[in-house]
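ok trying this again, last paste got cut off
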Amino acid sequence: MSETCHNLRALFPAQSDINATLKCDSEHHRRLALRHHAVTLEIARIEAELDTELKARLEALKKQRLALLDEIAEEHNA
């Protein structure tokens, strides 16, 4: 499955300002956005079989990314 559409702007189209909000409002929001990006890049790297020995970690990373998205959405809507 392709991971190319996991940027925050694409995932939260109704809130087009989410990237600016996450990066500017607080250090916590900036860290969430950076962690989400790092997890997405690692998933893509594993799926591209650059590190086939890490495929077992793939599902855990996807769950981590979903948890981050839940936290981002919750805080953005607060």
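PB: full thing came through this time. Residues 8-77 form one domain.
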